[in-house]
Design brief:
The complex is a heterotrimer of chains A (about 300), B (about 200) and C (about 550). With about 300 residues, chain A is mainly α. In chain A, the strands form 2 sheets. Chain A has a two-stranded antiparallel sheet with strand order 1-2. Chain C has a single domain, classed as Cytochrome c oxidase-like, subunit I domain (Cytochrome C Oxidase, Chain A), CATH 1.20.210. Classes of the chains: A mainly alpha (about 300), B mainly alpha (about 200), C mainly alpha (about 550). The site of copper (II) ion has 4 residues of chain C, from helix 8.
Chain lengths: ~300, ~200, ~550
């Protein structure tokens, strides 16, 4: 039996006449000789020229030998197929098949049948990033009477020379600070959005809750403990209340935007029995379909 | 052979994959390009940092003629491949010979240049940073030219003896890819050493 | 009709016994990807034991203050040889070995694209290792006392200049790495070509097992990382042999340039090592969770993303050089960005585990250990990526703890998992689960004793690469604990070696598919025949064996 799909290069090159044999490249020592030769040339550089000369000779011999292995025809040998036939069976499912939960049509685990595209997360990140500016600016205005303060503070994380800057300095407008702050802020929002988008399929149900509260809390918690080391200047001046407020603003808007987006059906959708599929509107309860998985898993072969 | 491990289905549609030689050569070219990149970075970094003369401006001349030879050999090797593809073997030999000739002229040019630099201007690899970076970068390229010339001469030899047929077009094409790469590197080296660095 | 073949015991039963010389000839001349893969693995394991022994000697030396167990010169050689061996002659070959063995099987091919080049690459890399260790016998020529390299695994200039390392010790280092580099590039080229050109019908790129994807990314990374190292080594050789001035500060050369060149290789290199570890995790975790991998496209995208980003972070190893605020900020941010694709991966693994029916085999236990420890190592990495923090801790034991957390806690752990998982395929026999679990727990304890507590003397200011220290520094207890962990790790490793040998002779017969897995290598006998597949398979989905086992519910309907 030959393969009509001529994908396999080995088969292409060595057309088999004997159906019970496979042609494979012939074993050869020439690559070894060449490798040894080159290694000895190198070794000659740290030991003795004689070693190097030996290496050179071996390399030349190896190259020639190799050359005639592949040209004009690649050397090959015919290996007989020893008729061991394997049939792949799942050791676990066969026994349990009949006793399976009657409703389930499949032994597979049903994952969420609807989820969001990963770009959804990015969109959410951008929207959240814009929203975050509002509480940050309010904070700057209230505490330092300048709209630039928060931006400059963020930028100071990047400029080592700003580490000792005074509040007045940070309250003024600096183009450099604006650009750096925008860059850091934009990039971070985008990346957080991306990460969020990648996580969304894990809990696609209530994006506002996860994005609006869980993520900011987590993020703030980590940052709160780490910031002292990471960026002392930020840590000294940060107002944690306002900080959390901006985080939550980010999260809520991000979650809201995500919620507006349409969901896409995952391939898992087709695994559902037709009856369920037909009546499915949105969030299908995954629990009912977990039972079959368990039956899949009895005993391990030894 | 009644059953196979995996049920063969859908065998109708053709399953075509790229040729191994070309992909392998492309990989080699990427790796080589990375090596050249490092040497070029070193060259650029050390421009004007030599503590003593001679400087590039004093001693380097533009190798225009030999560069033209090398670059045109890209064309001849391409013509050789297409000649072989159409089964015109003697034409292929002719173009291959031209390629080898042009490559050798380039190499001879480099040899002459080095001879002049060493014996006329007293610039060796030990003299200063310019010597260090110049000889290593140009030398690395010249090594590649030598390797390419050896392979091309072999191809020429087999073409003359008639053992290279249009079945071997694929192989010659892979070799020509390498040669194009060597030429392309020369364009960069030329720009860096003789234009920017001078 | 096909039946479940009685797996014959090919080791014992094979026709008349063959002479040792014949067997040896077979192995030496082979171009078979499976044999070459096994030789890679075996050779790496030997060097693992050697380099592990060197580490043990260093830990003995450091366990108590004012110790003179070895001389300072020997200590310098030990850490140099340990680091060089572990990276170039353990890490690379063992990963290439698994790649060599598994990739053709997983994509339904009969061999690598260039079988002879494959053999050549293996041999030249292994001769590199031999050359490196030959330095112990003949460092300054065949005569004279042996002198192994002692300049550290990154061999900063100008320490490598003739004045500071006379004789040939540094040349041994350079030449050995050059040889290993040629081998690495050859094998990487082979892997990429195999993956692109040798897939069986139906194995589209988006159906390839994730392991194959990760090896593709890793091999592409090898081209752009090992080549710069090769270039830098050539420059160093020119400096040392021909008297050029690349890294010669007396003649205006730059020592910092070497650092850049080394780390342009060095950082991506650690990703070259970790990507195959991800690859193993991607195969092992789903099978033992009894679920398909979660988020296949995201995993592929994250891997490719990691490959690219890892090229732009090298200078986080050079914060203390004084590169200026702009560069520091850039490299800090670039390093932090890596955590995004890495985070995506970790979440996807967790999601794969989530709700799965997890089988805690020895292999799975190591895989879970990998997940946990990789996370922590990533966190200390992020901490170090912050320039001011790094100024404090660079070149301290904190850094040593960080990268050993990755190299041992993540890479070695998942390697052990890979051994438990694929050993049955390679030998036809299962490794003992009981011994495996012992191995896991003992090694886990040893690992955490050593590397958790290594962070502390680092924070207290203990520099790396010191020969010994005064008793009043307060590092004493920590070093004692760290050294005692090494004992546990040694015992665990010995247990593993014993398990491999014992199971090879006495282990239970595995059969073709002991784990009820889904990728093609499990569709053939264990060990696979010389030709892998009697008939080239055709695949319809990412889990061809699932399709086969569940003809009524194939994966192809879902992708
Ligand atoms: C993926 C596996 C990783 C490996 C194998 C690894 C390995 C290493 C090694 C070998 C060193 C020390 C080099 C030396 O000084 O001799 C190191 C240092 C460092 N690593 Fe990692 N690392 C990994 C992941 C990470 C990650 C994820 C990050 C950050 C996100 C990171 C950040 C750093 C930093 C900043 C240093 C420099 C510390 C210093 O020299 O002061 N590493 N790593
Ligand atoms: Cu790094």
């Amino acid at each position: 039996m030959t393969e009509p799909g001529k994908g396999d290069a080995v088969q292409d090159e060595y057309p088999t006449s004997d159906p019970n044999a496979v042609l494979l490249p012939q074993p050869t020592a020439w690559p070894l000789v060449l490798a040894l030769g080159i290694s000895l040339i190198m070794a000659g550089m740290v030991t003795n020229v004689a070693v190097g000369i030996l290496g050179l000779l071996l390399s030349v011999a190896g190259s020639f030998g190799w050359f005639f292995q592949v040209l004009p025809h690649e050397a090959h040998e015919s290996v007989p197929v020893t008729g061991e036939e394997i049939r792949s069976v799942s050791t676990r499912t066969l026994m349990e098949r009949e006793h399976r939960h009657p409703e389930s049509a499949t032994p597979r685990k049903i994952l969420p049948v609807e989820t969001f595209r990963i770009t959804t997360g990015i969109r959410g990140g951008i929207a959240g990033g814009i929203a975050m500016i509002v509480p940050a600016t309010i904070f700057s205005l209230l505490k330092y009477h300048s709209i630039w303060y928060a931006m400059n503070l963020l930028a100071a994380g990047g400029f080592v020379s700003w580490a000792g800057a005074s509040d007045t300095f940070l309250s003024q407008f600096h183009l450099q600070g604006l650009l750096a702050g925008l860059l850091i802020h934009g990039l971070t929002s985008l990346l957080v959005g991306l990460l969020y988008g990648a996580m969304l399929p894990m809990f696609p149900r209530y994006p506002i809750v996860t994005a609006g509260f869980m993520a900011p809390l987590l993020f703030t918690g980590i940052l709160y403990s780490a910031l002292g080391i990471v960026s002392p200047i930020l840590n000294q001046r940060i107002d944690w209340f306002w900080f959390i407020m901006s985080q939550i603003a980010f999260g809520l808007v991000c979650g809201f935007v995500v919620n507006l987006q349409t969901r896409v059906r995952t391939p898992q959708f087709q695994a559902l029995p037709f009856a369920v599929r037909a009546g499915l509107h949105s969030d299908q309860d995954e629990r009912t379909h977990q039972t079959p998985t368990n039956t899949d898993e009895k005993g391990i072969s030894k | 052979m009644s059953e196979v491990a995996v049920i063969p289905q859908n065998t109708k549609s053709a399953w075509v994959l790229p040729s191994r030689g070309i992909v392998g050569m492309a990989c080699l070219i990427v790796a080589e390009a990375a090596i050249f990149l490092i040497f070029i970075v070193a060259y650029l970094y050390y421009i004007g940092k030599s503590l003593a003369g001679p400087t590039p401006h004093d001693v380097l001349d533009l190798p225009i003629f030999t560069s033209i030879c090398l670059l045109s050999s890209s064309l001849t090797v391409h013509l050789a491949v297409s000649a072989l593809h159409h089964g015109r073997r003697s034409l292929c030999s002719l173009w291959l010979a031209a390629t080898v000739l042009l490559g050798s002229i380039f190499l001879a040019g480099t040899a002459h240049e080095w001879y002049q630099l060493i014996y006329r201007d007293g610039l060796t690899i030990r003299t200063n940073l310019f010597g260090t970076t110049f000889y290593s970068l140009v030398g690395l390229h010249a090594t590649h030219v030598v390797v390419g010339l050896i392979m091309l001469s072999l191809a020429l030899f087999f073409s003359l003896t008639g053992s290279m047929t249009s079945k071997d077009t694929g192989r010659l094409e892979v070799l020509s890819l390498y040669w194009h790469f060597v030429d392309a590197v020369w364009v960069v080296v030329f720009t860096v050493v003789y234009v920017l660095g001078r | 009709m096909a039946t479940h073949a009685p797996v014959t015991d090919s080791v014992v039963n094979s026709a008349p016994r063959r002479l040792v010389l014949e067997v040896l000839h077979d192995w030496v001349t082979t171009v078979d990807h499976k044999k070459i893969g096994l030789m890679y693995i075996g050779y790496a394991l030997i060097f693992l034991v050697i380099a592990g022994f060197e580490a043990l000697l260093m830990r003995v030396q450091l366990s108590i203050p004012n110790n003179h167990f070895v001389s300072p010169q020997v200590f310098n050689q030990l850490f140099t040889m340990h680091g060089t061996t572990m990276v170039f002659f353990v890490g690379m070959p063992v990963l290439f070995g698994f790649g060599n063995y598994l990739i053709p099987l997983m994509i339904g091919a009969r061999d690598m694209a260039f079988p002879r080049l494959n053999a050549f690459s293996f041999w030249i890399a292994s001769f590199g290792g031999l050359l490196l260790y030959f330095s112990y016998l003949g460092g300054s020529g065949l005569y004279g006392a042996g002198s192994a390299p002692d300049v550290g695994w990154f061999a900063y200039a100008p320490l490598t200049a003739h004045v500071f390392s006379p004789g040939h010790s540094t040349d041994y280092w350079t030449l050995a790495i050059l040889l290993s580099g040629i081998g690495s590039i050859g094998t990487a080229l082979n892997i990429v070509t195999t993956i692109i050109c040798m897939r069986c019908p139906g194995m589209k790129l988006n159906r390839m097992p994730l392991l194959v994807w990760l090896y593709l990314v890793m091999s592409c990374l090898v081209f752009v990382t090992v080549s710069p190292l090769t270039a830098a080594q050539i420059m160093l050789m020119l400096d040392r042999y021909l008297g050029s001035h690349f890294f010669d500060t007396q003649a205006g050369g730059s020592a910092v340039l070497w650092m850049h060149f080394f780390w342009i290789f060095g950082h991506p290199e650690v990703y070259v090592l970790i990507l195959p570890s991800f690859a193993f995790a991607n195969e092992i975790i789903p099978v033992y969770s009894r679920k398909a991998i979660f988020g296949y496209p995201a995993m592929v995208a994250a891997s490719v993303g990691i490959g690219f980003i890892s090229l732009s972070v090298w200078a986080h190893h050079m914060f203390t050089v004084g590169m200026g605020a702009g560069a520091n900020t850039f490299f800090t941010l670039a390093t932090m960005i890596i955590s995004v694709p890495t985070g995506i991966k970790i979440f996807n693994w967790l999601a794969t585990l989530w709700g799965g029916k997890i089988h805690f085999t020895a292999s799975m236990m190591f895989a879970v250990g990998f997940l946990f420890q990789f996370l922590i190592a990533g966190l200390t990495g992020i901490m170090l990526s912050v320039a001011p923090f790094d100024w404090q801790l660079s070149a301290s034991y904190f850094v040593v703890a960080h990268f050993h957390y990755v190299l041992v806690g993540a890479i070695l752990f998942i390697l052990f998992a890979a051994f438990y998982y694929w050993y049955p395929k390679m030998t036809g026999r299962l490794l003992s689960e009981k011994l495996g679990k012992w191995h896991f727990w003992i090694f886990l304890i040893g690992f955490h004793l050593t590397f958790d507590f290594m962070h502390i003397p680092g924070l207290e200011g203990m520099p790396r690469r010191i020969y010994t220290y005064e008793a009043d520094r307060g590092w004493m207890m920590w070093n004692m604990i760290v050294s005692s962990g090494a004992i546990f790790q040694t015992i665990g490793t010995l247990l593993f070696v014993y398990n491999m040998v014992w199971s090879f002779i006495k282990g239970p017969i595995a059969g073709p598919d002991p784990w009820d897995a889904w990728t093609l290598e499990w569709s053939t006998t264990s060990p696979p025949p010389h030709y892998n597949f009697a008939i080239i398979p055709t695949v319809e989905s990412r889990r061809p064996l699932w399709d086969l086992k569940h003809p009524d519910d194939p994966d192809s309907h879902y992708e």
